[in-house]
Amino acid sequence: MSFRRPYLASSSNRTVLAKVNHRTIAPELCFDTEHLRQNGLIPITFDFFVNWNQARMGLDCISNQIWTKLLIPSEMRSLILQCNACNVPSLLYGMIGYDGAIYHLPELERFCKKYGFDLRIELIEDLTKDEWLTNADARVIELTDPLSGQMAPTLESMSFEQVKQHIRQVRGSKGLEKRTREWKGLTFATSGLESALSLDVDLWPGDADILLVSPDGTARHIIELKKITKSSNLPIEQERIRDRYLGNSKKRIVSDKKKYESLVALAKRLGNIPLTVFFFEAFIDNSSRKYRLQSTSYSQGTDLSCTDGTFYCSGELPLLNNNQQLDSFSRSFFDYHEMFRPSVSIEYIGHEHSGERMSGTVQSVHRGGNTYYAFVTGFDGTEYTINETEYGRTRNASKLIVPNARITFSVIGARGKYVLITDVASE
What we know:
single chain; five-stranded antiparallel beta sheet; 427 residues; 2 domains; CATH 2.40.50; elongated; 13 helices; alpha+beta; 24% helix; ten-stranded mixed beta sheet
């Protein structure tokens, strides 16, 4: 059977694909690397529902049902419906792979089982928006995944109107209170069905672009992808989560509060895990390929608002088929991810100042994959490392972190043979 992963295309003509930079690796694949897997970080993706009525009352607002989707040609519909419920597991595992498949399905199932989610796989006929609105025979086939541990296997066919009713039932509320009269729906979407639903209030559930999980399914880090094009007229260095959340008329940025509040709600549902926005340039003329990772700050209570966090990392997207650059990105991101770990006590040979500010001398500075890193000799004789992430987030690093410069710093912790430091300042 021929399944296809959702792809971003015109709502009115699915053969017209969204423009991308063909020189760089797809942003989502930057987080699916050997280095991250070796360090226990595996990417999964899914769609999830927020009950906004519950959210307004300060209650847990994430539905226990989550979806993942695949596209199918219309001629496959009858073949799938001929399968009985007992064949659902083998049908699911026929979807695993790289051509039109669900990545890391076993990890997604373990994640659902660990957090009590009911996993549904939606097989959507690959039609245009207009075909979904006018073709009464168009269908979505929903598979209940028995391996997520929540329900017995089922297989159900739904029309467009039945999908809308199903969405409202699962969400427990409308996706929007109302639509403005001039709204014409999504111009580009990952399926024609989502475009058709965008015309009304019963929206397709929001997506978790990337959730990094450990091999046992434990949620570790949410990554929201945000493409920056030349039409934004805003340098990526000036991108801020606060502006994307609240809007900024001077920067011509429209507020996207619902998106960010839904991601905060998911982060809280999963144990207050880190939430990061991955801003990346997608310039078709290949003139630039910068990225910026920005952490999100949100409260531990019922409030779902968010703003800029204190951690960030920047560099250039890896070029296509350049494994060295991809590995360098992976290592920089892992260093960034490690910043969110709670502080641990570390034993140093001959070091009596754990937890205090220290001073030392920069011995050497080196070019890394995206920026620079440096080695520092502390006054206690220990060799410390300023990694690429810390160099990138240090103000005036090119003037401050130079050979023979005297600096002060705080210790992050030891990993392997390296002792990492942060909060670098001039002595």
